[in-house]
Amino acid sequence: MVNKNTYSNNNSYSSDEQREYSGKHILNHHEFDLYHEERDVVEKLVSVKRTKKPSKGERWHIFIDREPLFIIDGNKLNKGEIDFLRTAAGFNFLIAQVKAGVKKLTKLKIELKKKVKKKKNEKI
C-alpha cells in the first residue's frame, strides 16, 4: 500500500529519499527559503529573465511573485551596461535593486549607470 502523501519508487529511492507532497503540489526548496517561520512573513520572489528579441537586441524581464514589474530594453542601454547585465553580478544587481524598493525604471537605470561607472573605474 502506498501512502498518498509520499512518492515512492522502489527501484531508485530509499525510504529516506522520498519526496513529500503538500496537498496538490510538490514542495519546492524556494518555498522553504522564502518563508521565515520565526517572523511569520513570506518573502517576495524576485526573478530576472534575459530574452533575445526576434530582431537585434535583448531584453531583461524583472518579475515579483511571477508578475512583471519592469522590462529593460537593451537598445536603450550602452554597451558597458549590456555587458554588465549579461553577467551573474548584473542579475544580482537587478534583484538587489528591486528588493531595496526601486519602483521606477528611471531610478533603476540611474543606479545601473552608477554601478557600471564605478566598476569601470575599478578596472582602470
Which terms would index this structure?
8 strands, three-stranded antiparallel beta sheet, 2 domains, 124 residues, alpha+beta, 4 helices
Describe the structure.
This protein is an alpha+beta fold and 124 residues long. It has two domains: 28 residues, no CATH class; 78 residues, no CATH class. It is built from four helices and eight strands. The strands form three sheets. A three-stranded antiparallel sheet has the order 1-2-3, with no helix packed on it. A three-stranded antiparallel sheet has the order 6-7-8, with helices on one face. A two-stranded antiparallel ribbon has the order 4-5. A hairpin with a 2-residue loop joins strand 7 and strand 8.
In short:
The protein is an alpha+beta fold and 124 residues long. Helix content is 35%, strand content 27%.
The biggest sheet amounts to: 3 strands, antiparallel
In percent, how much strand structure appears in the residues?
25-35%
Number of helices: 4
Beginning-to-end CA distance, first to last residue: 68 Å
What sequence of helices (H) and strands (E) makes up the elements? EEEHEEEEEHHH
Helix content: 25-40%
- Structurally, the number of domains stands at 2
Spatial ordering of strands, largest sheet: 1-2-3
Low-confidence stretches: 1-19, 25-29
Query: Strand pairing plus helix content: what structural class?
Result: alpha+beta
Mean pLDDT: 77
Work out the number of β strands. 8
Radius of gyration: 20 Å
Shape: globular
